[in-house]
Write a structure and sequence with these properties.
mainly beta, 7-stranded mixed sheet, 42% strand, globular
């Protein structure tokens, strides 16, 4: 969708970011975009294939319809969603539509995983608010590997309310999946977790955007809408601009928030989304603005996790190269939406979920996931307060299927609800030893859904629970 012409190699060599002292400049690469398709009579074929990672580097990947990232699904609220998954991978596969609230048998619970040569048909009506959602493998014990290898894409829902705001669209909308990767000497990402990765989760030092290593994109001096997904297995990003200007948050996991928030940075844990306005008005041709993951340290622990698994190291995740000067007013709406959701005053019940990571065991309330064990029974339509207690020295991005919750409070650690946690959330990041209280209510469908950590290694190792809504 965006024009990304190739850049003369001299310029690339001169202007590339540098690695450690003494190393040659690292190549950067034009961002690419997955093909956009409507999820209507759509077949997604999962298969092993070859993907390009930028700079002519190609290597093996696990793909849907031979695309890295997986095709971008764009759909309107109220429309039918009809997708057939065909599995040609050498492992079981199932897909989860992360953030949507479809019927239970359409949600990608791992008990529905299909073997090689099998297929699974999804058909439901999209009843969710406009927003930036995504989809990915949810195959138990295989989610981390399959998602890392490429079985993941963006899913954008649009509706009339959002359309009326006139947010930047067309080539002023940049959907991007940010991921960290470990690469071999040839520059090909690989997934080979060992010891420490099974505690911290699999992390790498190389930033990728939409499957491209160290990406850049050509832009006008205008206002852009940046739909960002943290599609990493374990990496937390702290996104900020290199030029000191702020980011404007207009939406997150559950779509638009109530009003725009101007922020110096936005933290995104794995699976969280940020719908950002990036104001490049006033820039000149030749200017470059880097979207960075800023340096940070996690309170409470995890600092001893050295090497690849260290959270908070600075990364340059996506560079904007201004190539055209335009005179356009950068109109940023202040009031955005009225966010539906549970009212904490209607609470009828409280529950506690304790997340522990000890001796390579990641558990919720002391238990590892079992496919056929129901861990909690939750009445449909009733408002509850759930306390997510992180009783470990590792961060846990906690994800709930089938609804969006409101973050009510946080104690320990940061001791506050962060400004990017406004609105409806389906994933909330718990730093070490934090307790986050959320208001939860299931109003879409009854059935068996999941609560789990979205650190994908933790999830695969059992930090997941079956929630029966009835
Ligand atoms: Cu976790």
């Amino acid at each position: 969708m965006m024009g990304t012409g190739s850049l003369p190699s001299l310029l690339t060599a001169c202007d590339s970011p540098t690695g450690p002292p003494g190393t040659p400049p690292l190549e950067t690469n034009p961002l690419r975009f997955a093909p956009e398709v409507a999820p209507h009579s759509l077949t997604l074929v999962a298969s092993a294939g070859i993907a390009g990672f930028g700079n002519g580097v190609e290597g093996p990947a696990w793909l849907l319809n031979e695309s890295l990232p997986s095709p971008l699904l764009r759909v309107r609220r109220g429309d039918p969603f009809q997708v057939v998954l065909e599995n040609q991978l050498p492992q079981d596969v199932i897909l989860h539509w992360h953030g949507l609230a479809p019927p239970a048998d359409m949600d990608g619970h791992p008990r529905y995983a299909v073997g090689t040569g099998g297929e699974y048909s999804y058909a439901f009506t999209v009843e969710d608010r406009a927003g930036t959602y995504w989809y990915h493998s949810h195959t138990h014990t295989r989610t981390a590997e399959q998602t890392y290898r490429g079985v993941a894409g963006l899913l954008i829902v649009e509706d009339d309310e959002e359309g009326a705001l006139g947010l930047p669209s067309g080539n002023r909308e940049i959907p991007v999946i940010l991921q960290d990767r470990r690469v071999d000497a040839a520059g090909i990402p690989y997934y080979q977790p060992f010891g420490p990765d099974l505690m911290a989760g699999y992390m790498g030092p190389e930033p990728f955007g939409n499957g491209i290593r160290r990406p850049w994109i050509e832009v006008d001096s205008a206002l852009y809408r940046l739909r960002v997904l943290n599609g990493s297995n374990a990496r937390i990003f702290r996104l900020g601009r290199s030029d000191g200007r702020p980011l404007v948050l207009v939406g997150n996991d559950g779509g638009l928030i109530d009003r725009a928030r101007t922020l110096d940075y936005v933290d995104l844990g794995p699976a969280e989304r940020a719908d950002l306005l990036l104001d490049l008005s006033g820039t000149e041709v030749g200017d470059r603005v880097m979207l960075r993951s800023l340096s940070f340290s996690l309170p409470g622990g995890a600092g001893f996790m050295g090497g690849a698994n260290r959270q908070g190291q600075p990364l340059d995740v996506l560079e904007f190269r201004v190539t055209r000067r335009v005179e356009e007013p950068a109109v940023i709406p202040d009031v955005l939406s009225t966010v539906p959701g549970p009212n904490p005053e209607d609470v009828v019940r409280e529950r506690t979920f304790r997340f522990t990571s000890e001796m390579m065991m990641h558990r919720i309330n002391g238990r590892s996931f079992e496919m056929d064990r129901i861990d909690e029974v939750v009445p449909f339509g009733e408002t509850e307060i759930w306390s997510f207690v992180n009783d470990s020295f590792l961060p846990h991005p906690v994800h709930l299927h089938a609804t969006h919750f409101r973050v009510i409070s946080r104690s320990g650690g940061r001791n506050q609800v962060m400004p990017w946690e406004a609105g409806g959330k389906d994933t909330v990041l718990l730093h070490p030893f934090e307790t986050v209280r959320v208001a939860v209510r299931f109003t879409a469908h009854r059935g068996l859904f999941l609560l789990h950590c979205h650190n994908l290694e933790h999830e695969d190792m059992g930090m997941m629970a079956n929630i029966l809504v009835e």
